[in-house]
Amino acid sequence: MTPLSYPCRKDFTPLGGVFFRYLRANNYTAVSDIIIAIDGYSACGKSTLARDLASHLGYTYIDTGAMYRAVTLYFLDHQVDLSDAQAVMKALDSIRIRFQPASDGAMATFLNGQNVEDEIRSMRVSGTVSEVAALSAVRRAMVREQQEMGMQKRVVLDGRDIGTVVFPQAELKIFLTADFEERLRRRFEELRRGGSQQALSSEEVANNLRKRDHIDSTRADSPLRQAQDAKRLDNTTLDRESQLELVLKWVRELTG
Ligand code: DC
After folding, report:
1. Which element (helix H / strand E) includes 210?
2. Going from the N-terminus, what domains does the chain have, and what CATH number goes with each?
């Protein structure tokens, strides 16, 4: 039987399904069905960790940054004026974002049926996404979608407000950090992998990171904050495997 995060779980285990239904009806959580929330600044490796965890646990990965990026791409392509509240609302009504397998089988972000996975990682989108993500109307729409997607649990979400706003009740919250130089190196790598044709200077990418850090953490609506009960993880010198191992240990501690 699935282990439960309940103090007396051994006493109750023999009741099996009946007990499960009782727990669910009373809002207790079977801890193998948890929500993992990962927050942190740009290019800290949140999506790498989230992907690794999701594939290890058989969970669904929800890249909330990709959703803000897809909205930004739509706004740029349709020249939506960010200061025009009505235009923003109208545009939001026309946007449908889905995560589904692309032709190569890898999961990708689809905007109104189009695979936009690479385009949303471009500097064109990165240059504006923080302004778009600071709009309350955009945040309301995205948070609603994210809460719906994660309602059934067994999800890993990464972003800026997951542990504080989207799922403050998430069983495991992680606040990821890394030194600025290391984040810059990772961002370059991400751009290169995404096939960026543009020759970008280190200064351009660094300025974009600084600007986004500033906007993401100082905006009025849901600024980036470490949730009080989040575990802080600095992965500057951790390799991917050690990072995953450490977080899986936290998951095991939770799930018994
Ligand atoms: O994680 P990322 O760099 O792909 O995110 C892109 C932008 O979206 C980032 O600058 C801040 C914003 N964002 C947000 O405000 N809230 C989230 N939950 C995720 C991303």
Report:
1. helix 202-218
2. 17-246 (3.40.50.300)
